[in-house]
Design a protein that fits this description.
One of its GO terms (molecular function) is protein phosphatase regulator activity. This is Serine/threonine-protein phosphatase 2A 55 kDa regulatory subunit B. Residues 7-17 have a biased composition (Low complexity). Residues 1-25, 171-199 are annotated as: Disordered. The chain is mainly beta and 448 residues long. Among the domains are: 56-89 and 114-173 and 233-246, no CATH class; 251-447, YVTN repeat-like/Quinoprotein amine dehydrogenase (Methylamine Dehydrogenase, Chain H). 9% of the residues lie in helices and 30% in strands. It has helices at 99-104, 192-198, 216-219, 224-232, 357-360, 408-413, 439-444; strands at 61-66, 72-77, 81-87, 116-123, 128-130, 135-137, 143-146, 154-160, 165-172, 235-237, 240-248, 258-261, 267-271, 275-280, 283-292, 303-308, 315-320, 325-329, 341-343, 365-368, 374-378, 382-387, 396-399, 423-425, 432-434. It has a five-stranded antiparallel beta sheet, with no helix packed on it. Strands 1-2-3-4 form a four-stranded antiparallel beta sheet, with no helix packed on it. The radius of gyration is 24 Å and the shape is globular. The relative contact order is 0.10.
Length: 448
Amino acid sequence: MSNAGRSPSSSYSSSPSGLQDAQAPSQLLHWKFSQVLGELPLPAGSGRHDNGTLQDDGDTISAIEFDGRGEHLAAGDHAGRVILFRRTDESHEQPPPSRAELERTDYAAAAAPPAYSYMAEFQSHEQEFEVLHSLEIAEKVKKLRWCAQPNSSSLCMLATNDRTVKLWKVSEHRSRKGNGQPRRRRSNPASPSEIALLGEGGSGATNGYYYEWASKKARSYLSPDSAEHSEKAGEVGEGYTAKCRRVFARAHEFNINSISDNCDGETFVSADDLRINLWHLEVTGQCFNIVDMKPADMEDLVITSAEFHPLSCSLLAYGSSRGFVRLVDLRRSALCDGNVRIFKNRENSMQPRTLFTEIISCISDVKFTGDGKYLLSRDYMNLKLWDLRMESSPVATYKVHEFLRPKLSELYNNDYIFDRFNCCTSKNGDYFATGSYRFLLLQHINLI
């Protein structure tokens, strides 16, 4: 992670209202090592673990996401697995100290770093083959998003690979008491009114996938051995079970680049290069295409990221390869081809364009601050903070890769100029973070 902190440094353009000016060095963030989750990376030149087994590329993390309260952490890997961790330290149950108290004590009274432990692991996606386009779809988990928690003992999240989004529910599994055999379900069939109410009379989704309730009636007549097998099939950790509640598939012709859940707790969007689809969490057979871009040349304009507003369920922002961010209102029309705001730095349009100008201006990620007043956008060179009320220029620009500008030709020859970096903001909006390169990598390709 690179240093994009609360207070702009010497590389910022202006300071946003509501954010304080540059702070004293003693009040800046101090990054310290906290914890390792999983296996440590192998030393350079080593191809084996200590036990002699080859390192599996499927263990490489491809997506990571904290829930809203920071109590759970989810990580997805190239093998299609999702690994969950839960916070185990006792300090998170106590209210955090106020900002005034931290500044008065020079941050010495800050709580100990959080500690997480393994919770569960499940296989989210499998490798698939799309017959229509003769395309192999990898099982790699690209994005993870936590959904609203249904109850205190269950967690819900969205996970996606290149083409399919799945809704998972992870629940605490309570062991049954008795003679060790699972309890038999009642054998009398459900009444027609119950079937109609639960929708169990149909086949589930029209896209070929079935809801969880589609097999409930069949399970009612299973033998004890079969029932035991069906109950244990979903166990993903000690005391936890995972169930795939919904599968949202066959709606994208291009690879999905982002998903975002809505603050209404009922809908979410999935975006690819040309389309943004609006889904309901309870409906898999139908989605609404709210943004449909059909440029003459896909190299000119594609969608790169989409994000819902944290407080207003009708506002959606999405970035493009042309370097601007559009803010649309779902209430204005069914197809959001117009925009409420378009955030683009007008000053940059007056500068001379080069071969690399369009490449480095491509928006790779957009995020709202927690209060919904500001918007973060990340391109290859900069992290920009926008005020939703002012679209002509960002209120702050953090020049993350300005030192690489003289080396753009070398980055282009090595394809590093096409790398994408994400960004995030703290819950209170005081701190931002984004990614960068390792020092050893830049040294290896003679960029520093």
